[in-house]
Design brief:
With 304 residues, the protein is of the alpha/beta class. The protein has a single domain, classed as Rossmann fold. It contains ten helices and ten strands. The protein has an eight-stranded mixed β-sheet with strand order 3-2-1-4-5-6-9-10, sandwiched between helices. A two-stranded parallel ribbon has the order 7-8. Helix 3 packs parallel to helix 4, helix 4 crosses helix 10 and helix 5 crosses helix 10. It starts with 15 loop residues before the first strand and ends with a helix.
Length: 304
């Protein structure tokens, strides 16, 4: 694994990869690297213009790239259901699902279309519902993988079962950390559920360290402390192509293992090359993970 890069991605002549939030940042780098390695890639996002521009950028770099775009809003369960229905109707097996999209630290408490706190609803519930509804197509693949992105912020997170939607008090960073801890717990529990029920799906978790994307600016705002650091102190952040490596390793390496968490290997996992990452204590609590799984099924109105 030492100093693994995108050049180590095995070449393919087929294989369908779906990546949420892939019009920019880590997701875009995932789409570029996978399509360059021969994957058929479906890029996903809320903005069709951004989707078209991102596809054009990839095809300019690699004219042979097989990329398409699908509109989806992970903050709206009906949008997720609509996308999943289109995929089911198409009937093509899904070999790789990367749950990458995210919302980060909006200053005021906002809600999804279904009334969930925006970060928990988008980052966790949206991806939970999407994965559940794509399960039949993932099971059609002989070697399907689901990679779910967490964050170093999960270290500060706690799953507050008494106030999952941050209704009694909202602190942007605290709600974000909870959502990213939920992402990690989902990834680990999905592996256990797959093994228990014989789904044949490998579930892996990853995080990008501290990377140069627009997530901070679009979430907390350009003039927040975090947004200004991203704008005026870019040397603190590794390039998004480097930040994408743990995800790409988890998604493609023959050595990546189900139920394992990968992140950068240097400076407290903030930068570097892919390595096994540290799992916070609550994410290792199987009882809490199963409780979160059960609640998530009820909230998203889906079943695996």
């Amino acid at each position: 694994m030492k100093n693994w890069t995108a050049a180590n991605i095995p070449q393919r002549s087929n294989g369908l990869a779906i990546i949420t939030g892939s019009t920019e940042g880590i997701g875009y780098e995932d789409a570029l690297a996978l399509s360059s390695a021969g994957w058929q890639v479906i890029m996903m996002g809320r903005n069709t213009q951004k989707g078209a521009e991102s596809m054009a950028r990839i095809q300019q770099i690699n004219p042979k790239a097989s990329v398409s775009f699908e509109k989806i809003d992970l903050a709206d369960l009906s949008s997720i259901k609509s996308f999943a229905s289109r995929m089911i109707s198409n009937g093509q097996a899904i070999d790789l699902l990367i749950n990458n999209a995210g919302v980060m630290t909006p200053p005021k408490r906002l809600e999804t279309a279904d009334g969930f706190e925006l970060q928990f609803g988008t980052n966790h519930i949206g991806h939970f519902a999407l994965t559940a509804q794509l399960l039949p197509l993932l099971r059609q693949s002989p070697e399907a993988r689901v990679v779910t992105l967490s964050s170093v912020a999960n270290r500060e997170g706690t799953i507050n079962f008494e106030d999952l939607q941050s209704k009694s008090s909202y602190a942007p960073a605290k709600a974000y950390s909870q959502s990213k801890l939920a992402n990690l717990m989902f990834a680990l529990e999905l592996q256990r559920q797959s093994e228990k029920h014989g789904w044949g799906i490998t579930s892996v978790a990853a995080h990008p360290g501290v990377s140069r994307t627009n997530l901070l600016i679009t979430g907390a705002g350009r003039w927040s402390a975090a947004g200004m650091a991203r704008t005026f102190l870019p040397f603190l952040f590794q390039p998004s192509a480097q930040g994408a490596l743990p995800t790409l390793y988890a998604a493609t390496s023959p050595e990546a293992k189900g139920g394992v968490y990968y992140g950068p290997d240097k400076l407290m996992e903030t930068r570097g090359f892919p390595a096994v990452a540290k799992i916070p204590a609550q994410a290792e609590d199987v009882q809490d993970s199963r409780r979160l799984w059960k609640i998530s099924q009820e909230l998203s109105k889906v079943e695996f």
